[in-house]
Design brief:
heterodimer, A: about 375 residues, alpha/beta, GMP Synthetase, Chain A, domain 3, four-stranded mixed β-sheet, 11 helices, about 30% strand, B: about 525 residues, alpha+beta, five-stranded antiparallel β-sheet, 18 helices, 12 strands
Chain lengths: ~375, ~525
């Protein structure tokens, strides 16, 4: 080929790139108003009140990162987010937003519209975490004083990520929430957040779970119940299991550290009857004993303790499931989904009335706890005077 | 894309054949006559206005029929040879008794003149050429023939380590400007009659001696033939450095990538000869060319082969990554920071953002200018006397690195990216040019299209690499393959007992380097 033709072709290719490339625009990094997180409340004048935490970066040799909180109202989520330009001066940049906090009032009325914008918009990330405020308003979260980070939203994200060592709140990303919204046989849930005043300081605390039915909030369960919920959905990777030996002594407590947990949920179908089998395999270790008169070096005692803790786990899980069935009739565990995946024929016949079926669903729980060690000490600490 | 090599210079094909190159009008048409005086006049005419032309006439003491003269150029010859081996024997010995008069010319050539190299010549072109190269012409009255006596003697640089290719371990010899010394350096490494050495002269005016070296039983004949064809096609007035030859015979003449290797080290040339490559030594240039040249050779360094193979491979991986990072990092940074902020991890984004706060210039402009300044400093430092170099370094490092950030003209990451890219560029000396060209190309593409443009440019580079060949050998030879020992010497340097075969295609004629190399190590 002639060089002229080659050069011409290269130009054609380069310029067609301009037309083909979908989403691109040149913008300098310091022109962005980086959104760290957003809280959505009901507005006074308009429908929604947006409280946005914008990262404020002061440059120079000693750069400092802090945040500023802006409140805007709008009739739609998108409108509100664009209205924010008038306040912040910079165009808001959503790709690094970490948390979405929705107030209880909005969640009770229906959350679909808010989630929709986060999923649909090209710039927002659907892997941000969704939280439901258990307090009066959602925006007060950002009044809180972060302990380890400079920015509240980043600290909330950290808290959720480290929750696997605590197992007191589920971590739900927006896309997971949306999947539950749209999915059959599973109800959405989200971690709950509230503020606590400690020595005049407002501190946001994530604990418990917000229970939804459809897209409407129906109630909350506390952190302890959440732990058993997480056991069922196989998301416990750590945390503390406390066993109270109430028979022998009042303050007889054994605290175990959970090392690993595997939960298998299996629907058992007989005719048109569905039962759910839950099998847990938990590995834990004794980390704290205030029960002085038990000798655990003894194999037999060890086995007994394992069985007792298994029993306790089974009871607690059962209680949590019963609460869901009776109080909220919301299948946050996704039992229905399991049936759907496992046996579609049965699902076709019962899927339409799953709520009803769920309320009377029989759940068999078998917990197999194995205690692998008792940390550094093998025997309880003895006190001799 | 950058144009294949085409048959240029097809015109003077017959004339431009090595030693047959015609001189100026002065020489053509003339020939040696039987009369000495006529011959002397002719040479005076040919070398008119050249005051270094020396003509010394003398006779034998005993036999006056021996009237002769020697013609040479002053400053090109070793006067000892002329005095002791030519003039003295002819002048002093009693020729009247010893030799027959009927065959005086041959008698003198074989019995009297004491030189190691005497050649009888009649062709005036050849004779003039030899005189110009420092040989001495001996003429005898009554004969239209001349004797060319080797008497070259001029100052040569001694063999010393090349400053541009230094090693910690390995031979410290480097090529010099003298083609003969260079040949001796190679010969001393490969003592084998299969090492063939051929001469030719290129340059209508400079008559530069070119030498082709190759291993006859390893080197590919078709590559040799093609090399000779291209060399013969050259029709230029002068060759000052091997760079001229390189550019005149190379493939892909418009590409920034090297398609002909060049080195100042005899050990490198010897190793390449043993792999079936062909070397071209150009008189007056310490850089010896080797063909064919493939991309993998840009990251191969002689020390890789002398050190432990693990260390050698590690160094090679570093060099390879350095070249890639040097090309990629400015454009990637630009694309991420100005187009795809969502791809940067949040903490990094915040620190980038903080460092850019209050910077007046767009990122592209500051990157472009800083890279340009780095290249200016590099170019300035290359040719600067070492006493001044210090000042340039201080200005470069302090003023441009430190002060520019302090004055908030350029953000700190930009300076880091520039410095990183600039230093990594210098790690592969062969690739400095291409890396700079590709780096700016990608930078421009990234500045208008972001990652999209970056990928487009990267694909363009890879396509270009895949499309070019060096003397029929694909440029990307062995880069994507590890089968059949192909990858033994590309990304890593395999141990010597593993490298039992030579590179395919290049040494297709004689692939086996070691017989049972793997067995021996056990």
């Amino acid at each position: 080929m002639k060089p002229v033709r080659i050069i011409f072709m290269i130009f054609i290719i380069i310029f067609s790139c301009f037309l083909l490339s979908g989403c691109w625009n040149y913008r300098e990094i310091d022109d962005l108003g980086i959104v760290a997180g957003v809280a959505i409340d009901e507005g006074f004048e308009k429908k929604y009140k947006f409280t946005i935490e914008v990262v404020y970066v002061s440059g120079g040799i000693e750069s400092k990162v802090s945040s500023r909180v802006v409140s805007i109202e709008g009739n739609s989520v998108f409108e509100a987010s664009r209205n924010a330009i008038a306040v912040t001066g910079k165009r808001l940049y959503w790709s690094h937003s970490k948390v979405l906090v929705v107030s209880k009032k909005i969640a009770e009325k229906g959350i679909t519209k808010i989630v929709d914008w986060f999923i649909r918009d090209a710039e927002t990330r659907s892997d941000a975490f969704i939280l439901i405020s258990n307090g009066e308003t959602a925006h007060e979260i950002f009044d809180g004083v972060p302990m380890t980070e400079e920015i509240v939203s980043f600290e909330l994200e950290e808290t959720l990520l480290n929750n696997s060592h605590l197992s007191k709140a589920p971590k739900i990303k927006i896309w997971q929430f949306a999947n539950c919204l749209a999915g059959e046989g599973i109800s959405p849930k989200a971690p709950a957040i509230q503020i606590e005043k400690v020595m005049d300081k407002i501190i946001p605390i994530i604990t418990g779970t917000a229970i939804f039915k459809g897209d409407k909030l129906v109630g909350f369960i506390d952190g302890e119940e959440t732990k058993y919920f997480l056991f069922i959905v196989d998301e416990v990777k750590g945390g503390v299991l406390t066993y109270e030996e109430s028979e022998k002594r009042e303050d007889g407590i054994i605290a175990l550290e959970i090392f690993d947990n595997k939960t298998r949920i299996k629907p058992v179908v007989s005719g048109n009857d569905v039962e759910i089998d839950i099998k847990l395999k938990t590995v834990a270790a004794i980390n704290e004993i205030s029960l002085i008169d038990v000798n655990f070096v003894n194999r037999e005692e060890w086995r007994k303790l394992e069985a007792k803790i298994g029993k306790m786990l089974e009871n607690n899980i059962k209680e949590t499931i019963e609460k869901m069935q009776q109080q909220y009739s919301s299948d946050i565990f996704g039992f229905g989904k399991k049936v759907y995946e496992d046996n579609q024929k049965v699902w076709n016949s019962i899927g339409d009335r799953w709520d009803e079926v769920f309320q009377n669903l029989k759940v068999n729980i078998k917990a197999d706890v194995s205690i692998k060690n008792s940390a550094v000490l093998s025997e309880p600490l003895e006190v001799r005077n | 894309m950058f144009g294949r090599r085409k048959n240029r210079n097809t015109a003077n094909d017959n004339e431009t054949n090595g030693r047959d190159i015609k001189f100026d009008e002065v020489v053509s048409g003339n020939s040696l006559s039987k009369k000495l005086d006529e011959n002397i006049d002719m040479f005076k005419k040919i070398f008119s206005d050249d005051e270094t032309l020396m003509i010394r006439r003398f006779q034998n003491k005993y036999l006056s029929a021996v009237k002769c003269c020697i013609i040479y150029l002053d400053a090109m010859i070793d006067l000892n040879i002329i005095n002791e081996n030519i003039i003295k024997p002819i002048h002093n010995s009693n020729l009247a008794d010893e030799i027959s008069r009927s065959n005086l010319f041959e008698e003198l050539q074989y019995k009297v003149i004491g030189s190691h190299n005497i050649e009888e010549k009649t062709d005036l072109n050849n004779i003039v050429e030899d005189i110009l190269y420092g040989d001495t012409l001996f003429l005898l009255d009554g004969y239209d023939r001349g004797l060319i006596i080797k008497s070259q003697g001029w100052e040569k640089r001694s063999v010393e380590e090349s400053p541009s290719e230094q090693v910690v371990r390995g031979p410290r010899e480097g090529f010099t400007e003298s083609v003969m010394v260079n040949i001796s350096l190679i010969r001393r490494k490969i003592k084998n009659p299969e090492l063939k050495i051929k001469f030719m002269n290129i340059g209508r005016r400079t008559h530069t001696k070119i030498c082709i070296c190759y291993m006859k039983d390893i080197a590919s004949e078709s590559i040799l033939k093609e090399l000779e064809r291209r060399l013969k096609e050259i029709d230029i007035d002068g060759i000052i450095d091997s760079g001229y030859i390189e550019e005149l015979i190379r493939d892909a003449p418009f590409s920034p990538l090297p398609t002909i290797g060049s080195t100042e080290r005899p050990d490198v040339v010897a190793a390449r000869l043993l792999e079936g490559r062909i070397a071209v030594i150009v008189d007056g240039s310490p850089d010896v060319l080797t063909v064919p040249f493939v991309l993998a050779e840009t990251t191969q360094v002689n020390e890789d082969y002398y050190n432990n193979f693990i260390f050698g491979s590690f160094n090679r991986i570093i060099r390879t990554t350095a070249a890639i990072i040097a090309i990629v990092i400015p454009s990637l940074y630009l694309a991420l920071v100005t187009f795809h902020q969502e791809m940067i991890p949040t903490p990094l984004l915040l620190s980038f953002s903080a460092s850019r706060e209050g910077i007046p210039f767009p990122t592209f402009l500051s990157l472009f200018v800083m890279l340009l300044i780095f290249d200016i400093l590099r170019e300035a430092g290359t040719r600067m006397p070492s006493t001044v170099g210090q000042a340039v370094n201080i200005v470069g490092a302090l003023v441009l690195g430190e002060a520019v950030v302090q004055a908030r003209l350029v953000s700190a990451p930009v300076v880091i990216v520039t410095a990183l890219s600039g230093i990594l560029t210098l790690m592969n000396i062969d690739m400095v040019g291409p890396v700079i060209v590709f780096r700016f190309m990608l930078l421009f593409l990234s500045s208008v299209l972001g990652i999209y443009g970056f990928i487009f440019g990267f694909v363009l580079i890879v396509l270009h690499l895949a499309s070019i060949r060096s003397f029929g050998v694909p440029y990307m030879l062995d880069i994507t393959s590890v089968k059949n020992h192909a990858g033994q010497d590309v990304w890593i340097r395999a141990p010597w007992w593993f490298m039992v075969v030579r590179p395919k295609i290049i040494a297709a004629k004689n692939l086996v380097r070691e017989i049972s190399g793997k067995k021996r190590r056990r």
